[in-house]
C-alpha cells in the first residue's frame, strides 16, 4: 500500500509511475494483481470513470459510469473472483482502494492537501508551506485590489 503526500510512489517493474493525476488528462492508476492489470481512469471534466482489466491481450472494459460524486465504487467479476475498486476524492486528495472477495489487497493515495513535516527533525516544512500559500495569497491580493479599484471608480 502506498501513501505518499507528494505524489504516488507506486511504480511498475520498469520504474514507471503507477498513478497519474492531471486536470487535462484526468486520474489514472494501475494495479497489478493475480497476473492481471486493473486500470482505472476518471475525467475531471465529464465525470466519466472507466475500469479495464488486461490479461496479456487487449484490455476488457469491466465497469463504466458517469457521475460527479466524491465517492464511487466499481464492482466486477473476473476469472471467478469478485473485485471492487473504491474511489474517494477530496480537496487535493485522491484515494483508490482495490478489494478482492471483500478483502483490501492494494491501495493508492495522492495527497497535496496536507502539511508536510520533515521526518528527520519532526518540524513543519516552512519552505513547502510558504510555497503552497504564496500563489493563492498573491491571487487573493490581486483580486482584492482590482475589486477595490473598480468599486472606487464606480462610486466616483
Describe this entry's structure for a reader.
With 156 residues, this protein is of the alpha+beta class. The chain folds into 2 domains: 2-111, Lipocalin (Beta Barrel), CATH 2.40.128; 122-156. Helix content is 19%, strand content 46%. The chain contains 1 helix and 10 strands; from the N terminus they run ββββββββββα. The protein has one helix spanning 126-155; strands at 2-4, 19-22, 26-33, 36-42, 48-54, 60-66, 71-78, 81-90, 93-100, 103-111. A 5-stranded mixed β-sheet has the order 1-10-9-8-7, with no helix packed on it. β3 and β4 form a beta hairpin. The longest helix has 30 residues, at 126-155. The chain is elongated. The protein starts with a strand and ends with a helix. Mean pLDDT is 81; it is low at 1-16.
Keywords:
156 residues; alpha+beta; Lipocalin; 2 domains; five-stranded mixed β-sheet; five-stranded antiparallel β-sheet; elongated; disordered N terminus
Give a count of the beta strands, DSSP E runs of length 2 or more: 10
| CATH-scheme architecture of the largest domain | Beta Barrel
Describe the strand arrangement of the main beta sheet, using strand numbers: 1-10-9-8-7
Tell me the fraction of residues in β-strands, as a range.
over 45%
The helix content is 10-25%
Structural class: alpha+beta
Q: Helical region count?
A: 1
Poorly predicted ranges (pLDDT <50, ≥5 residues)?
1-16
Which oligomeric state applies? Answer: single chain
Briefly note the CATH topology name of the largest domain. Lipocalin
What's the helix-strand series?
Answer: EEEEEEEEEEH
Distance between the termini: 61 Å
| Radius of gyration from the alpha-carbon trace, in angstroms | 21 Å
CATH class of the largest domain: Mainly Beta
Number of domains: 2
Mean pLDDT: 81
